[in-house]
Structures are given as structure tokens and as C-alpha cells.
Amino acid sequence: MSDKTVIADLAKQFAHSQKILTALGDENRQHLILEMMQMGKCDGVRVGEITARTHLSRPAVSHHLQILKDAGVIKMRREAAKNHYYFDVDTKSINRLMEMLKSIKTIMQSLPDRSGSDDQDPYPAVQPNVINL
User: Which of 14, 15, 68, 119 could make a disulfide contact with 73, Cβ separation 3.0–4.6 Å?
Assistant: First the structure.
């Protein structure tokens, strides 16, 4: 695979991961994710439950949950007039993000070491393709 093809593929991966990168990049959403995980409710949590555990207003929590939902990090189940938010076990968006990060790591590892140090990666990865950039 040519260098240009590898970079073009990476650009596509970035485009497909844009929503999740944006969603995970916000400290408030990171906090919401951690709070939801700590709550440990497999059947989902309601906005009010999350709001009680954060410094955010109810509308702000709803806004952040919507962004996480649009990014594929969480899903929402409606029961009557109540919305329950839960983690998506399908994790397509997380898998897509991980594939993109693996691609970045492969490209970076194929580059020559320009640091000037003798420090070695304690967890070297297998380098399937060497890419000259």
C-alpha cells in the first residue's frame, strides 16, 4: 500500500471518528461517562440521577448526553415519559476509534526515531508495514 493510500485511509478514519472524538474530548462528557460507569445501573440512568452527581444543570446534562448518544457512546431507551441512558454494547464507534488509533500508531512506529534518545518502547508492537513518509 502506498504512503498516499495509507494517509488517505487515515483521513477517512478521522472523518468517521469525528463525532466520537468530539464527544470524548470534552471534560464534562468525560465526567458524565465516569459517573454513569460508577453508578453501575445496567438498565440505564435518568438525567436527574446524573445531574444529582454533577455540577451541571439538568439541561446541560441532557445536552451532553445527546452528544454522547449521537456519537454512539450511549443509547437511550424510553419507558413511558422517562428516558434511560445506557452504554451501547454494540460499540461500533469505539471500535472505529480504536482502529484509527491503531493506524496512527502503525504509521508513527514506521517513522525513523528522531528523538536522539536510546529510550525503547517497553511494549513494542508488531510492524506489519513499513511506511516511508
Answer: 68
Pairing mode of beta strands 82-87, 74-79: antiparallel
Helices (H), the chain: 3-24, 27-39, 47-52, 58-70, 92-110
- pLDDT per position as a tens digit, 39-55: 988 789 999 999 999 99
Buried b vs exposed e over 93-109: b needs ≥16 C-beta within 10 Å?
bbebbeebeebeebbee
- Over the chain, what is the mean pLDDT? 87
Q: Decide: 70 and 88 in contact? Cβ < 8 Å.
A: no
- CA distance to 7, 53, 131, per residue, from 46 (Å): 42, 12, 48
